[in-house]
Amino acid sequence: MTEDNRKPADASDEVAGTPSEETVGATENGEDGFAAERERYEAEIASLKDKFLRAFAEADNVRRRAEREVADAKVYGITGFARDVLSLADDFERALGTIDADARAGAEGTLKTLLDGIELTARSLNQTLAKHGVARIEAEGTKFDPNLHQAMFEVPNAEVPSGTVVQVIQPGYTIGGRVLRPALVGVSKGGPKAAPADAQGNTSN
């Protein structure tokens, strides 16, 4: 056979083992599809993670709110009862106040026993109230606070700063830090103005 009768070599024979364009394209399409699928799963995982975190946070908020409500119920559940009991404390205080100090000091026999019993009962009642978070508002001599006090009248007094509580008509009480009953008070007027709280203790340079 002569060289002229030889069949031309196919191009694929010259690059035997080299991927064709179709093969390369299929591989790239497969990789692109895998990447897109991976992105979709990652986005779905991120979405589920976000939903889980939100649900967990909401459940935690519900738990905290329930705990707070239970705690508040323990502290403030007796508010109505405590408010009614305060009238008894007022009665004891008025009963003791009707007898001046000299008469009480000179009391003997049955009267002394009666007064001691009233005083002991009043003290026990106040201790019981304090045990359940009910505290008396110490108002006299303090600056009038509308959150704690209810002004009934003004008392002209030039010796104390204006707005000072100089008389307590009915003591006030708090329960768990909240006002159970404001103190009914008389407030001074005509005296010097009280110094601002932020100015106390400051000196000019």
Automatic annotation (TrEMBL):
Database matches in InterPro entries: GrpE, GrpE_CC, GrpE_head
Region (Disordered): 1-36
Annotated localization: Cytoplasm
Biased composition (Basic and acidic residues): 1-10
Alphabetic keyword roster: Chaperone, Cytoplasm, Stress response
Primary location class: cytoplasm
Domain of life assignment: Bacteria
Family indicated by similarity: Belongs to the GrpE family.
PANTHER family: GRPE PROTEIN, GRPE PROTEIN HOMOLOG, MITOCHONDRIAL
The protein's assembly and partners: Homodimer.
Protein's job: Participates actively in the response to hyperosmotic and heat shock by preventing the aggregation of stress-denatured proteins, in association with DnaK and GrpE. It is the nucleotide exchange factor for DnaK and may function as a thermosensor. Unfolded proteins bind initially to DnaJ; upon interaction with the DnaJ-bound protein, DnaK hydrolyzes its bound ATP, resulting in the formation of a stable complex. GrpE releases ADP from DnaK; ATP binding to DnaK triggers the release of the substrate protein, thus completing the reaction cycle.
Stated name of the protein: Protein GrpE
Source species of the chain: Ancylobacter oerskovii
Gene this chain is encoded by: grpE
